[in-house]
Amino acid sequence: GIQVEQSPPDLILQEGANSTLRCNFSDSVNNLQWFHQNPWGQLINLFYIPSGTKQNGRLSATTVATERYSLLYISSSQTTDSGVYFCAVGAGNNRKLIWGLGTSLAVNP
Amino acid sequence: DGGITQSPKYLFRKEGQNVTLSCEQNLNHDAMYWYRQDPGQGLRLIYYSQIVNDFQKGDIAEGYSVSREKKESFPLTVTSAQKNPTAFYLCASSPRGAGGFSYNEQFFGPGTRLTVL
């Protein structure tokens, strides 16, 4: 099955810094989502991005499907950005999302 | 106010008891899913349903059961056969995709934390 690898596993930033999170996947996909899991466990949809580039405020994402990776950019980080960022991919008819282990982000004031 | 609701937020169970976790959505989504998350891990699929009165096993279905009698509701029962049920359970839904054969973005409820005492 498809393997999903996220890097780095942990990241500590000072408020205001920028960061790039990476998601590599081992096969062709037709669904790729980025999520932020907050300290209460809620999964918040950031991007649905099987290909191309999207931006939403301070966050943007790029998926290069032919090279099997996706990047999540966080600019001017804030303490509320802390939490775990997950990448999940789907193939075929998208019945199942395959999840990476996440990047744990801590933003210090 | 559309969304996915899960209840209860916290649940404690004694060993040997069955418990049922509720998941309701008012997004008119066709597909619904149940995932389990253990500390430091990604999510693993327990069951999913694409249509009323139909559901399929995911990767870790043993010890769990589901029903889909209504489009809006997809309850999960954790049975006494589940050997290690303490975990965070997340319900999701997604709309039918183009052509009716694929599914798009999944959206998640707030989760239920189950602890077996």
Could you give a short description of this structure?
The complex is a heterodimer of chains A (109) and B (117). By secondary structure, chain A is an all-beta fold.
Poorly predicted spans of chain A? none
Class from helix and strand fractions of chain A: mainly beta
Poorly predicted runs of chain B are none
Class derived from helix and strand content of chain B: mainly beta
Strand content of chain B: over 45%
Report on the biggest sheet of chain B. Answer: 7 strands, mixed
Any idea what the shape of chain A is? globular
Q: What is the rounded distance between the termini of chain A?
A: 41 Å
Number of strands of chain B: 11
List SSEs of chain B in N-to-C order: EEEEEEEEEEE
State the helix count of chain B. Answer: 0
Could you name the key traits of this structure?
heterodimer, A: 109 residues, mainly beta, six-stranded mixed β-sheet, five-stranded antiparallel β-sheet, 0% helix, B: 117 residues, globular
Overview of the molecule:
The complex is a heterodimer of chains A (109) and B (117). With 109 residues, chain A is mainly beta. The mean pLDDT of chain A is 94. Helix content of chain A is 0%, strand content 57%. In chain A, the strands form 2 sheets. In chain A, strands 2, 4, 5, 9, 10 and 11 form a 6-stranded mixed β-sheet that branches. Chain B has 117 residues and is an all-beta fold. Chain B is 0% helix and 48% strand. Chain B contains no helices and 11 strands. In chain B, the strands form 2 sheets. In chain B, strands 2, 4, 5, 6, 9, 10 and 11 form a 7-stranded mixed β-sheet that branches. In chain B, strands 1-3-8-7 form a 4-stranded antiparallel β-sheet, with no helix packed on it. The model of chain B has no long low-confidence stretch (mean pLDDT 90). Chain A binds chain B through residues 4, 30-31, 33, 35, 40-43, 45, 48, 86, 88, 90, 92-97, 99-102, and chain B through 31, 37, 40-45, 48, 50, 56, 58-59, 88, 90, 94, 97, 101-108, 110-111, 113.
